[in-house]
Amino acid sequence: MGRKPTGKRKHLLFYVACLLIMTLWIAGCSHVQQSWQARQNLSQAKTLLANGHYQAALGKTEQVLSSYPGTKGVEALYLMGIIYAHPQNPDSSLDRSLESFHILVKKHPKSDLTREAEAWISTLRKIKKMDKEILEFKDQIDKLKEVDLGIEEKKRRDLPRIKKMDREILELKDQIDKLKEIDLGIEEKKRRESPRVHP
Fold first, then answer.
1. 13-62 tens-digit pLDDT
2. Regarding the domain with residue range 7-132, which homologous superfamily does it belong to in the CATH classification?
3. Least enclosed by CB within 10 Å: which of 4, 13, 38, 156?
4. What are the residue ranges spanned by the domains of the chain?
């Protein structure tokens, strides 16, 4: 049944096996190299973020996201969300941060980072709501300040007139008191001059 392979056939099978092993080895090394490069870029992005170089950190995460959208892309999206939400980032954007976290949750629902991204989404939404309320309160305060300034201006404008009216009121009270005295004096005089009637 089985013939022994001839010399040429032995070598051909050997070469095919070697070629197959080499292909698999190169493919494996390439994947390891790509994974290592993605980890390096993410590590550099974290270092840049820690040192306050937000744009450079975003650049590194965007490189990872475009080159390795799989597992390392999830980490890149997560890190982008943190960079955009960072309060000291001069280009911070809660909307962009939310967008990064939403993409992570939508495209990678089974990732280990999905729960953390959902927590960030909830927190950022609350912050946006509070920011909106703060702006509304500031608008109300500004309107009240305008009303208050208007009242103060009216007081300042009307103050001389009010003082004049106060003086006039005091003068009128004095005149009334004098008239009362005169009236009492007249009444007293009439009482003295009128004959008394005895029963």
1. 666 766 776 666 555 544 455 678 888 988 999 999 999 999 999 999 99
2. Tetratricopeptide repeat domain (1.25.40.10)
3. 4
4. 7-132
Closest by CA to 95, choosing from 55, 115, 53, 124, is 124
∠ Cα 27 58 132 (to 5°): 135
Residue 197: its H or E element? none
pTM: 0.59
Burial of 138: CB neighbours in 10 Å, binned 0-12, 13-18, 19+: exposed
Burial of 42 (0-12, 13-18, 19+ CB in 10 A): buried
CA–CA gap between residue 104 and residue 115 (Å, rounded): 10
